[in-house]
Amino acid sequence: MALEKFPHKDQVNVVWKSFELDPNLKTNTKISAIEHLSQAKGISKAQAEGMEQHVAAIAKEVGLDFNSKGTIVANSFNAHRLIQLAKTNRLGNEMEEALFKAYFMEGKNIDDKEALIKMGVSIGLDETDVTEIFTSDVFAKDVKQDETQAQSMGINGVPFFVLNNKYAVSGAQSPETFSEVLEQTWEEFEKENPALIITEGESCSPDGNCN
Q: Beta strands 160-163 and 167-170: pairing type?
């Protein structure tokens, strides 16, 4: 939302990075995400439901219909590898959106081979390339490199945004907050990278004409 209103949005490049909240999580379709949260945090099911409802309410304020009771407990490693593949095809944004929608809204298993293949193909990826994720360790190193970088920067949660390798925004923030940081970052970027100023003088063209 902030980017849509940003006057220089066409010059902003969004790069998605991999970050697994729980790399050791085992996919389990037999329990709900609320039951898993209750067990993982050592809290009551009612408390877990309250946390999920709070997130869903915030999502609804910006037009997102989160299905907190329908989300499936799934390891995200293969999904992250799929994102890395999409990035090489300049489809990182599209892949992220498809995965977010599948997990948070449609209750799909983001560790399911067929589901991931279908999502990858739906955004324009080659089915053979997507299938290779399940038959090799392709892009595994890329996921781990991103996570190592995050660790070196002290990042221990998501969402987390880094602008121009200088400013960080942690957690879900309002569009107004992002607009302020975008404007400040852009002003400093322009100062550090002034536009090329051309003063015309005598010159020659490739065909030998000089003036």
A: antiparallel
Q: CATH number of the domain at 13-155, please?
A: 3.40.30.10
Q: What pLDDT score was predicted for residue 198?
A: 45
CA atoms in the 13 A half-sphere facing the CB of 138: 15
Cβ atoms of 103 and 71 within 8 Å: the answer is: yes
Quick one: what percent of the chain has pLDDT higher than 90?
A: 74
Is 129 exposed, middle or buried, given 0-12, 13-18 or 19+ CB atoms closer than 10 A? middle
Per-residue pLDDT, averaged over 105-133, amounts to 97
Query: pLDDT per residue over 23-44, tens digit each?
Result: 999 999 999 889 999 999 999 9
Distance (Å, whole) CA 74 – CA 68: 14
Residue spans per domain, the chain: 1-12+156-194, 13-155
Taking the C-alpha atoms of residue 90 and residue 72, their distance in angstroms, rounded to an integer, is: 28
Rg of the chain over Cα atoms, rounded to whole angstroms, equals 22
Residue 183 main-chain phi, psi, to 5 deg: -65, -45
Residue 33 backbone phi and psi in degrees, to 5: -65, -30
Ramachandran bin of 200, using left for φ above 0, alpha for ψ from -120 to 50, beta for the remaining angles: beta
Tokens found for residue 180: 């302020």
Q: Given a cut of 60, is residue 201 above it in pLDDT? A: no
